[in-house]
Specification:
With about 120 residues, the chain is of the alpha+beta class. The protein contains 2 helices and 4 strands, in the order ααββββ. It has a domain of about 80 residues. A hairpin with a 4-residue loop joins strand 1 and strand 2.
Amino acid sequence: MKKILGVVIILGVVVWAFYLVDKQEAVAPSTVPPVMTSANLIEKTNVEKYLRENIKTLAPNSPVLGGSWYVVSDTIDLATKSGTVIYEDGHIQSTAKFNYSYDSTMDAFSISDFIVTE
């Protein structure tokens, strides 16, 4: 009787162990975010600053009711040298996509293809 009880307990522990191992979910490999170097941070900051200071001349549409354009948010993709900017004048909001080129040696860049999408 003791042998049977011992075998049952051992089988129970083995089954329980397999259950726990099988129950663990596969962990997806972590994706490494792009490394933000100081040069990349400077580039991103300069593009955002340029957008904020020059949205009034970049925007092809006109503000309404005496409003003035200002940037609400932006997304800069350093890999493709492109971005999206959301701007408004307090009455209407617009979204535009753009491309840019950046010369880090001269700390100069230009924005091209500024296309309003909304």
